[in-house]
Amino acid sequence: MKSLITAALFLMAFSVQAITNHAPDFKLEDQFSKEHSSKKFEGKSVIYTITDRTGAEYMENWIIALKPFKSRVDLVAVANVKGVPGLLKGFVRGKFRDVYSYPILMDWDAKLWEHFGCREGVPTVVHVDGSNVVRFKISGKGTEAEVKKLRDELNKLVAAQ
Which helix (DSSP H) or strand (DSSP E) does residue 137 occupy? Predict the structure, then answer.
């Protein structure tokens, strides 16, 4: 009986690990009210940049580091806007439209934020390969050391695909 319980616990732990190592299915709208689905990225290498309001000030460091990869991967910007009251969602969407011309997915329920285990106050960069497997994740302010680590890892991972 003890070995059966141990086996069941092992399988449960393995299942949870397997699920969290993949990007989740999602449907999110950007600031222009255009819907984006995880289906759009099937079979593609994707880099998600995810941040909350306080971490947005550090996003530029990561964006500069990711520019050389733009032709080889899909870059997807995601804003964690979970705390915005319903009445202010249109206002917030409008502010994003005023500032950003490229799509930023509005994660009102923090689905991607929570799934990828993002940290408050700093951006998180997640690389998902064409098999929908998370290959690399880093969170931080985008210091020289963090950016170097990101570039080194992406050069290895993207070259291997």
Answer: strand 134-139
Which domain, by its residues, includes 14?
Answer: 2-160
pTM: 0.83
Paired tokens of 137: 């994740």
Residue with tokens 């020289």: 144
> What are the tens digits of pLDDT across the range 70-125?
888 999 999 999 999 999 999 999 999 999 999 999 999 999 999 999 999 999 99
User: What burial letters (b/e) apply to 96-130, b meaning 16+ CB within 10 Å?
Assistant: beeeeeebbbbbbebbbbebbebeeebbbbbbbbe
User: Tens digit of pLDDT for each residue in 14-56?
Assistant: 333 333 588 999 999 999 999 999 999 999 999 999 999 999 9
Instruction: Residue 65: give its domain's CATH number.
Output: 3.40.30.10
